[in-house]
Known about the structure:
Helix 2 packs parallel to helix 4 (109-127) and helix 4 packs antiparallel against helix 5 (130-144). The strands form 3 sheets. A 7-stranded mixed β-sheet has the order 2-1-10-11-12-14-13, with helices on one face. The chain has a 4-stranded antiparallel β-sheet with strand order 5-4-7-8, with helices on one face. A hairpin with a 6-residue loop joins strand 13 (330-337) and strand 14. The chain has 7 helices and 14 strands. With 368 residues, it is of the alpha+beta class. It has helices at residues 28-38, 60-80, 86-102, 109-127, 130-144, 250-262, 323-326; strands at residues 3-9, 40-43, 165-169, 177-181, 184-187, 193-197, 200-209, 219-229, 235-238, 275-280, 286-291, 300-305, 330-337, 344-350.
Amino acid sequence: MTLDVPAVVIESPAEATPRPLSALGVAFAGRIAWETAESVRAVELPEPPTPPKPHLDPERASRLTRIETIMRDARTELDVADVAQLGHVRAALAAAYGEARAHAEDPEAPFLVAELLRLLARAELVAGDLGGASALRARARLLDGGRLLGLSEGAAPLPPQAPLVTVTWTADADPGTVAYLDGNEHAFGPAPLVLTIEPGEHHVRIVARDLRDPSNVLETSVWAGWIVVAAAEPARTFLLPRAPIKACSRDDLAPALTAVAADANGHFAVGCTDWALLREKPNGALEVRRCDAHGCAPPVVWMTKPKGKSGGDGVDPPPPSTSIWRSGWTYAAIGAVAAVAGGLAAWRLGAFDRGEAPPATLRWEGVK
C-alpha cells in the first residue's frame, strides 16, 4: 500500500517559501528511490480553497418587498393618528422588525431596522409616550446615523449622547475581508481595526471578496449579527470569526516552514501529522525530512546508484570526481527499484560531511 505524503520543496535561503514538486529538477531520480523504498508517494500541498460563491437567498427579494409594504401601510395609518388602529399597526411593525433582525446577512438590515424603530417611535407618540419614542429614535440613530424627520413624524427629543467606546477588531483576517459596521465599510489591513462608536446596539456584517477577480463585486458573507456595546466599557475587542485552516495546506504549514528556516531543529504546532520537506542535492540526490505536527526528523539523502561497468557485484560507485561521493557520507543500501530498467539500486545516504571514515557498505541485491 502506498501512502500519500504532502511534500514541500524548499531551497536555501528561502526555506519558508514552499515550492511545487516540479522544482526538484534533476532530483527526480532521488525522489523515485525514496518513494519506492518507503512505499510513499509525494503529493502537492492541497490547493487553497476558492472563495465560496455568494449565497443568493431566493427569499430575499420577496422579504424586502413584504417589509417595505408593511412600512408603507404603517406610515399611512400613523399619518391619520387614529389611536384605535395602534394595536394593528404595532403588531404589523413588530413582525416586520423581527423578520429584518433575523436576516442580519442582508445588506439592508441596519437601515430597515432603523426605519422600523422610527415607525414604532411614531406609534408611541400617537399613544402619548414621549420617553418611549425618544428611546426608539436613539436606537435608530445608532444604526443609520439619523435623518431629518418629516412634519408628521413629531419631534420627540433624543437623549444626550453617551461617551464613545473604542472597539478593536483583530487583524487576523484573510485578504479581502471587509467589515460593515452599521452599513459603513471598513477594510481589514495588517494593523488592528480600531473604531470609536456610541454605546448601544450595532449591526455588523463581515464579508469576503474574491481578490483574484477585481471585476467580481459579489461578496460572500462570513458572519453577520447584532452586537451590544455597554456604556461602562472603556474599550472592547472582538475576535473576527474565520473558517478553520485545512490541515496540510499552505496556511497550516506556514508556521512550520518559518520555524525550520530559523532553526533546523525548531519546534512548531500544525495540523498536518505526516508530511515531508524535500531539497535538491547534487547529482540527482534528494534530501528528505519527514515531519509530523510538531517537528521534523534529521535529513536523509536518497539517490539511485547507476549500474556497474565491471563484473563482480555489478554495482560500482560513481567516479571520484563526483562530489556527492567525495563528501564522506555514510551509505546504506536498502532496496532495489525493480521497475527501473537496468536494475537501479536505491541508496539511503545520511550523516554527510563526517570526519571519520565511513563504515562498511551494505547492499541488497534482491532475490535471484
